[in-house]
Amino acid sequence: MDTIFALATAPGKSGVAVIRISGPKAFVLGQGMAGSLPAPRGSALRVLKDAQGEFLDQALVLCFEGPSSFTGENIVEFQIHGSPAIISAVLNRLSEFDDARMAEPGEFTRRALENDRMDLAQVEGLGDLIESETEAQRKQALRTFSGHLGTKVEAWRSKLIRAMALLEVTIDFADEEVPEDVYPEVGQLLSSLATDFKGEIEGSYVAERVRSGFEIAIIGAPNVGKSTLLNALAGRDAAITSHIAGTTRDVVEVRMDLKGLPVTVLDTAGLRETEDEIEQIGIARALQRAEQSDLRVILSETGTAPDSVIAESSDLLVRAKSDLTDVSRGLSVSGKTGAGVDSLVDAIHDRLVALVGSVGTATHARHRAAFKAAEASISRAQEGIASDLPVELVVEDLRQATIHLESLVGRVGIEDVLGDVFSSFCLGK
Question: For each successive 10 residues of the chain (429 residues), what is the average pLDDT?
Fold first, then answer.
């Protein structure tokens, strides 16, 4: 394979920049620029020079010997001063070496996958970790990156193999009496797997919300204080406020970090009967987005839902304008003074944390599809056993379930998803 190199830190001016080299000639390139290299897993200060021996920069040089490295290959890293001019000079010098080239996006991580340093789910976790903006996103990505899904896949795969082995015993004794009834244990194994897969499928929808952000819709009558509340939550004038009813015509979205959770708060048009065609469109959009949101905050001066909205148990009913009314029970806020906003934030956080608690190890749509396919295969196997189908057909269904599980960590069917997985990675990863 080619020896590849790239800037591993963000482009632009910085205090320190890291340039990574990986491949069979990584040590040769490192010696060509630094003169000598520290021992593997060691570090040392070295002067980097160009082809004419001219000074480029003083760098902290680190070496990692394959296969015990991130990519599974020999790796050299230069920690240089983060001047764009120095970065450019070092990269230009590296490009002058034979059999060395600039890495493609995600190529370092792809080599780690190909050299069995990571599985496909860990690669996705690494991508999510790089993109994480909130504490919840960081924790979820780190759980996937640490190999939690791969560990579970191995346990599920062992159960499937055990079930197949038990069933194949009946094939070996086709013309004789089977020494022991294997079907009760097989049934227990398959029921356990089906339950686990259902939980992963349900949790994957919430996991996607942790990655993309929960949507919280503020709905209520005109001029009840929805936009003022949004501004109070955002800490800035994100929405126009006015005493004129119907000021908000479209959905105003503000993305924020709510106590470690990624959320997008939606300010919607006031719900009322109107002859204004544009306002009617805004109200229709408000109801549609509120229906699709993860949580509805119903704001009213009475603390009850307006006639056009059927309150559900998952909704938060909030009394508005607490600075002007007597509030003795339930949630109440004043967007104008900020009173009660902290309590509302706590209530929203508690509702979302309850949802996050259902997250399993499946965090992407690809994971959900694999679990659905595996669950369907197990269901067919259970039906086959109940219907006395030939054991060979039941075993084949379980073998298909195993294949779907193995696709989660990239053991099979990997090529058709690699392009999508690595498309969001930067050059240095």
Answer: 92 93 95 93 94 94 94 96 95 92 91 91 91 90 91 93 86 57 89 95 90 87 79 65 46 84 83 63 74 86 74 83 66 79 88 84 91 96 92 92 90 54 60
**Range list for CATH 1.20.120.430 in the chain:** 135-209+364-409
Q: What is the pTM of this model?
A: 0.75
Starting at the earlier edge strand, list the strands of the sheet with 55-64: 43-49, 55-64, 75-82, 14-22, 3-7, 100-102
With respect to CATH, is domain 223-351 assigned 3.40.50.300? yes
Q: Which residues contact 248 (CB under 8 A, 6 or more apart)?
A: 226, 227, 239, 240, 267, 268, 269, 270, 282
Q: Which class is 135-209+364-409 in CATH?
A: mainly alpha
For the chain, give every residue range classified as CATH 3.40.50.300.
Answer: 223-351
CA distance linking residue 389 with residue 71, whole number of Å: 47
Topology given in CATH for the domain delimited by 3-114: Gyrase A; domain 2 (3.30.1360)
21 - beta bridge partners?
A: 5, 76
